[in-house]
Write a structure and sequence with these properties.
135 residues, alpha/beta, Rossmann fold
Length: 135
C-alpha cells in the first residue's frame, strides 16, 4: 500500500480520486490548496503525487511545478488540468513528471499510471510524460 497525495481544489475531483485510489488499496492524502499539498508532501512516507496545475492559491505554472518538484524530491508526479493546451503540455514535458492528464480522465488510466510510477519511481529525463486529452 502506498501513500498518494492528491492536490486538487475541485472537491468532486478530489473525492473521486480519493475513492479510486482507496479501492486499489492505497492510502490517499487529499489536499485542497497548494500550501496544504506542499506541507503534506514534506512527509517522506508519501510515495507519489497527483496534482492539479491550476489552483486558486497556486503561483504561476513554472513556479508551481518547481515547488512540486522540489518538495517531491524525485517521487513521481502526475499532473492534471481542466484547461489543457499544447503550450501547457510542452511546459510540463520531461524531467520528473510521470504523466500529464487533462480532465476528465479515465479511472483505469490513473490506476495504470500509478502502478507504473510506483513500480519505477524515477522517471528518466529522456522519457516524455504520458499526455492524455479528453476522451
Amino acid at each position: 500500500m502506498a501513500k498518494i497525495l492528491i492536490i486538487d481544489d475541485d472537491e468532486s475531483v478530489r473525492n473521486y480520486l480519493v475513492a479510486a485510489i482507496s479501492r486499489k488499496g492505497h492510502d490517499p492524502l487529499p489536499a485542497a490548496t497548494c500550501q496544504d499539498g506542499l506541507a503534506q508532501l514534506d512527509d517522506p512516507t508519501v510515495q507519489a503525487v497527483v496534482a492539479d496545475l491550476f489552483l486558486p492559491d497556486s503561483p504561476p505554472i513554472a513556479e508551481w511545478m518547481a515547488q512540486l518538484k522540489r518538495h517531491a524530491a524525485g517521487r513521481p508526479l502526475i499532473l492534471i488540468t481542466g484547461e489543457p493546451s499544447e503550450e501547457l503540455a510542452a511546459q510540463v514535458r520531461g524531467g520528473e513528471i510521470a504523466a500529464f492528464l487533462s480532465k476528465p480522465f479515465e479511472l483505469a488510466f490513473i490506476h495504470k499510471l500509478l502502478e507504473r510510477a510506483l513500480a519505477d519511481p524515477a522517471p528518466r529525463a529522456a522519457d516524455p510524460p504520458d499526455v492524455q486529452g479528453p476522451p
